[in-house]
């Protein structure tokens, strides 16, 4: 039965079954996917390092060349070229081919155009190009140089997709096209993104590499400093560029060109944008900016309009009166594509294999290709010169023996017999024999594929020449006019020049240095004819936008409560009032809390926080919690600074340049200890803080002021005592030192204020007591003495316990704060001057058990002006 079943299967079916191999679906899918991936990588997405072209671009340019669509010929319809490309070389969608043509014709996409377009090829606003039936194209002049040598067999050819014709595997540009115009492509599992560069700079780097092959990437970067984009703008910083050139991966930070102008009449600032980063769509950018303004994510812009025309780009961004254009511009850089990163990924095909290349390797591969092109071109020219010389040799022999040649032809019964007789005869010709002797290897002067027993025979003066079949036929076809004396001379001269060319080509092919010289000369010619200036300006000092650049500079008031709540708000929320008013609430407080400190400064100023334990912390004012309401509590300072348990902020000091050599920080403690330390000792902010002064047990820091070399310090006690001495009497100490005695305290007293004066003749001491009394006393009324004394009387004991003493001038503004949070701002000139021992006058009407908590002087330039309506009862 088994035999019967087997008989049902034919012998062919058995053979087929043996040939079938079994494969899992995973193996089949894997191999198929890899085949597809490599096809995309090699045949579509990645450029060749030698000519910088993807296959579609290479085929477009070659098809245009075959169609005679050169730069000096009339334009042809884009549709015609697209049809040629599709029909002969690239059987894909017509949209893909036309899109590639459009990109090569767009000035805002290509740094150097390869296609000269006529018609609508799109815009930087994202407008699409017109249909291919409406636009016309031809090769750009530079594209002519890309294919200059392909007719001389300088590159390999391969069959097209159906084998009906040939196409080049690579073009032969005589400039580094991949770097000059860049390339972008996404393959399977890899991508490339190479920025465009300036042609003159790139060729300069090539010339350096030809002259000095051991040149480093750093050497090359002295020639190629950064990419050069067709849309100009700025290259903001070179750190990412250097990394990209060194490793093949990096980033280029691009910025548009934006200038700030101020209107002569309105004095309002306006941002004018005239250039955009590469690949940024202007229309979408403006739309996005408008959305940010509507959503209140971008403040300070009152109007936005596009005034671009055929003369160039012009985007106008009008700034509000109360905004700063520089801050708005920084926000535009941070939040929009007015600043954009170009991720560099220099991947290209090297002999068909995708590789990541650094700058030097890209140039080396181009130069190697260029040397090969020149070598193969010389071989082609040598072959053509040999063929020409071969023909001229026969004509030279004929004109030298014209009578014999004519006699043989006349007597021959037929042309074929005449040819044979001419070939069989040994001829003498001094010109030919002499020229061939110069070649030393006469066979190099003839085409190797010419068959037959012909050429130079014999040696020396006895040498004779035998004609080849092609030479004999040329003699038979020669017109009689060429037998004239003039034509005979031309043949000889032409032959001598051709032999000289052969000798030169042989010398080139035998000497690599001559090939290098040719490559160098051709590069210099391209640089001279097509080189131009950079478009993208380089900002080598460019850095990342810091958050500080996005913060508007404005005057701020920082308040600190006894319970440790801190906040910042604009100082223009207060108006100047006369003394005796009820004041405004500076900050809301919890039950039992009081405002203990207030400081006025710019939002970008650095605030140095000195704590009761003698430690120092740093913060910019814009980093502090900001509130629009005066009645808000603020934020606990322990959430802002890393304070330890029991530690409190005792002094807030505004500082500018911390590296100054002419300033010191003068500190004083409650027990009368003083110390001064150079400001630059505090120039390195640390998150955890540092020790500013070592504090004894039971003591605490009460003040810290900036002092100069000739400054004078004053200490004031709560019992009404004061001492004045020169800060130079206190030697400069390190950060961790304890300090020295500044005042000898009486029983039960403690130091409440520290003042440092630079102009004692113009300044006064404003003394304020807890009962609301205050007085002004000239600084010079306090006798200058040595530190460590008991001090002089500062105010009458009847005025009450001293809360604080501060330095003021006649036109100063001061803010006085009560322990309930009420505040009054007064001019010091409204407080009469008094001697040291007087009571003073009432500064504010206190309510019930209310007491004065603090008093602060405001900077002169920010004083005055009705900023808020007067408080009720003022």
TrEMBL record:
GO terms for cellular component: chromosome; cytoplasm; DNA topoisomerase type II (double strand cut, ATP-hydrolyzing) complex. It catalyses: ATP-dependent breakage, passage and rejoining of double-stranded DNA. PROSITE patterns: TOPO_IIA. Belongs to the type II topoisomerase GyrA/ParC subunit family. Its EC number is 5.6.2.2. It is found in: Cytoplasm. NCBIfam families: gyrA, PRK05560.1, PRK05561.1. SUPFAM superfamilies: GyrA/ParC C-terminal domain-like (SSF101904), Type II DNA topoisomerase (SSF56719). It holds the Pfam family DNA_gyraseA_C. The keyword Lyase does not apply. This is DNA gyrase subunit A. A type II topoisomerase that negatively supercoils closed circular double-stranded (ds) DNA in an ATP-dependent manner to modulate DNA topology and maintain chromosomes in an underwound state. Negative supercoiling favors strand separation, and DNA replication, transcription, recombination and repair, all of which involve strand separation. Also able to catalyze the interconversion of other topological isomers of dsDNA rings, including catenanes and knotted rings. Type II topoisomerases break and join 2 DNA strands simultaneously in an ATP-dependent manner. Keywords: ATP-binding, Cytoplasm, DNA-binding, Isomerase, Nucleotide-binding, Topoisomerase. One of its GO terms (molecular function) is DNA negative supercoiling activity. Heterotetramer, composed of two GyrA and two GyrB chains. In the heterotetramer, GyrA contains the active site tyrosine that forms a transient covalent intermediate with DNA, while GyrB binds cofactors and catalyzes ATP hydrolysis. Few gyrases are as efficient as E.coli at forming negative supercoils. Not all organisms have 2 type II topoisomerases; in organisms with a single type II topoisomerase this enzyme also has to decatenate newly replicated chromosomes. Residues 46-550 form the Topo IIA-type catalytic domain. GO terms for biological process: DNA topological change; DNA-templated DNA replication. It comes from the Bacteria. SMART domains: TOP4c. InterPro entries: GyrA (IPR005743), GyrA/parC_rep (IPR006691), Gyrase/topoIV_suA_C (IPR035516), Topo_IIA-like_dom_sf (IPR013760), Topo_IIA_A/C_ab (IPR013758), Topo_IIA_A_a_sf (IPR013757), Topo_IIA_dom_A (IPR002205), Type_II_DNA_Topoisomerases (IPR050220). It comes from Candidatus Amphirhobacter heronislandensis. The active site is at 134 (o-(5'-phospho-dna)-tyrosine intermediate). The keyword Nucleotide-binding applies.
């Amino acid at each position: 039965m088994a035999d019967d079943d087997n008989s049902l299967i034919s012998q062919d079916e058995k053979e087929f079954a043996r040939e079938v191999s079994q494969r899992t679906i995973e193996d089949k899918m894997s191999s198929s996917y890899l085949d597809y991936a490599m096809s995309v990588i090699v045949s579509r997405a990645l450029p060749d390092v030698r000519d910088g072209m993807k296959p579609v671009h290479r085929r477009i340019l070659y098809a245009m060349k075959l169609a005679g669509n050169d730069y000096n010929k009339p334009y042809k319809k884009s549709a015609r070229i697209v049809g040629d490309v599709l029909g002969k070389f690239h059987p894909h969608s017509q949209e893909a081919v036309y899109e590639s043509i459009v990109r090569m014709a767009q000035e805002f996409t290509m740094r150097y155009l390869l296609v000269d377009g006529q018609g609508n090829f799109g815009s930087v606003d994202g407008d699409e190009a017109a249909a291919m039936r409406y636009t016309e194209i031809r090769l750009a002049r530079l594209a002519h140089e890309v294919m200059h040598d392909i007719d001389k067999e300088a590159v390999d050819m391969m069959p097209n997709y159906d084998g009906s014709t040939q196409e080049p595997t690579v073009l032969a540009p005589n400039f580094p096209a991949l770097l000059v115009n860049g390339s972008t492509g996404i393959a399977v599992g890899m991508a490339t993104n190479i920025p465009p560069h300036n042609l003159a700079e790139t060729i300069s780097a090539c010339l350096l590499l030809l002259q000095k092959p051991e040149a480093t990437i750093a050497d090359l970067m002295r020639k190629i400093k950064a990419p050069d984009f067709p849309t100009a703008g700025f290259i903001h910083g070179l750190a990412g560029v250097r990394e990209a050139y060194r490793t093949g991966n990096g980033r280029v930070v691009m910025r548009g060109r934006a200038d700030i102008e101020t209107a002569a009449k309105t004095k309002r600032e306006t941002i004018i944008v005239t250039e955009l980063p590469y690949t940024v769509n202007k229309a979408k950018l403006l739309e996005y900016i408008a959305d940010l303004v509507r959503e209140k994510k971008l403040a300070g812009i009152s109007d936005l309009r596009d005034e671009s025309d055929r003369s160039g780009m012009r985007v106008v961004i009008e700034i509000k009166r109360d905004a700063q254009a520089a801050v708005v511009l920084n926000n535009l850089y941070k939040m929009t594509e007015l600043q954009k990163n170009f991720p560099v990924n220099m991947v290209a095909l090297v002999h068909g294999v995708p590789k990541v290349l650094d700058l030097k390797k890209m140039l080396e591969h181009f130069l190697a290709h260029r040397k090969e092109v020149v070598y193969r071109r010389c071989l082609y020219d040598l072959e053509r010169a040999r063929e020409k010389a071969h023909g001229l040799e026969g004509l030279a022999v004929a004109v030298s023996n014209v009578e014999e040649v004519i006699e043989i032809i006349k007597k021959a019964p037929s042309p074929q017999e005449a040819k044979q007789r001419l070939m069989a005869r040994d001829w003498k010709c001094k010109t030919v024999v002499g020229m061939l002797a110069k070649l030393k290897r006469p066979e190099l002067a003839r085409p190797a594929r010419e068959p037959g027993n012909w050429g130079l025979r014999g040696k020396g003066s006895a040498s004779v020449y035998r004609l080849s079949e092609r030479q004999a036929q040329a003699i038979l076809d020669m017109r009689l006019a060429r037998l004239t004396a003039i034509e005979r001379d031309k043949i000889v001269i032409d032959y001598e020049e051709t032999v000289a060319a052969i000798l030169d080509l042989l010398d080139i092919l035998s000497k690599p240095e001559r090939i290098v010289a040719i490559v160098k000369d051709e590069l210099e010619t391209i640089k001279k004819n097509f080189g131009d200036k950079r478009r993208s300006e380089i900002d080598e000092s460019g850095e990342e936008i810091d958050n500080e650049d996005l913060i508007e500079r404005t005057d701020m008031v920082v308040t600190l409560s006894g319970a440790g709540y801190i906040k910042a708000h604009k100082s223009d929320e207060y108006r100047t009032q006369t003394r005796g008013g009820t004041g405004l609430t500076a900050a809301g407080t919890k039950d039992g809390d009081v405002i203990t400190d207030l400081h006025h400064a710019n939002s970008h100023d650095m605030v140095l926080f000195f704590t009761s334990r003698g430690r120092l912390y740093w913060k910019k004012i814009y980093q502090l919690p900001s509130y629009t309401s005066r009645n808000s509590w603020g934020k606990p300072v322990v959430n802002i600074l890393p304070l330890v348990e029991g530690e409190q902020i005792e002094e807030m000091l505004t500082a500018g340049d911390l590296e100054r050599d002419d300033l010191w920080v003068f500190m004083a403690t409650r027990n009368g200890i003083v110390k001064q330390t150079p400001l630059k000792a505090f120039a390195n902010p640390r998150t955890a803080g540092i020790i500013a002064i070592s504090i004894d047990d039971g003591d605490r820091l009460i003040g810290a002021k900036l002092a100069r070399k000739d400054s004078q310090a004053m200490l004031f006690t709560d019992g009404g005592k004061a001492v004045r001495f020169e800060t130079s009497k206190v030697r400069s100490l390190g950060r961790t030192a304890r300090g020295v005695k500044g005042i000898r305290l009486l029983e039960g007293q403690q130091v409440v204020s520290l003042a440092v004066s630079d102009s004692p003749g113009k300044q006064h001491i404003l003394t304020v007591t807890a009962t609301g009394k205050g007085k002004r006393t000239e600084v010079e009324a306090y006798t200058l003495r040595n530190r460590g004394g008991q001090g002089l009387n500062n105010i009458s004991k009847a005025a009450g316990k001293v809360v604080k003493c501060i330095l003021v001038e006649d036109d100063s503004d001061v803010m006085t704060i009560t322990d309930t949070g009420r505040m009054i701002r007064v001019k010091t000139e409204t407080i009469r001057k008094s001697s040291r021992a007087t009571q003073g006058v009432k500064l504010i009407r206190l309510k019930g058990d209310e007491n004065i908590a603090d008093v602060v002087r405001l900077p002169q330039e920010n004083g005055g002006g009705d900023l808020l309506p007067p408080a009720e009862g003022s």
